[in-house]
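Late entry, evening session. Most of the bench is empty. Finally got around to the prediction I had been postponing all week. Sequence below, unchanged from the version circulated by S.P.
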Amino acid sequence: MRSGAELEGAFAAAVRDSVQAVDVPEAPLLLIRRAEIAELATNMRLPAIYTFREYVQSGGLMSYGSDLPDLYRRAATYVDKILKGAKPGELPLQTAEKFELAVNLKTAKALGLTISEAFLVRADEVIE
């Protein structure tokens, strides 16, 4: 996919090729169109997992990925250090430390899926 106009075709190709599930990668173009992507996946009966909970809040099935507000807070500390004179090249490299799991039970039901209680207990957010 090179543009948002190709979304429907990409999902149609997945269905045509008998894809059983979709992993939607992290990309600004996709995040902006998350509601459309979630709707396409559900309408085409394709279970999908996403990187960010915003997809699940927009109707996607489930997400597992970095906690964006935590990343932004940590980035702000770097900006603060740089503004106070730290050299960016001397600051240690950081990776995500906090991850979150979100599940949308409405979407699971629409797809005919049952999510186990053991899985739901581990979720940070469950949309019913």
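Two things to note before I forget:
The mean pLDDT is 92.
Residues 71 and 127 are 23 Å apart (CA to CA).
Will write this up properly tomorrow.
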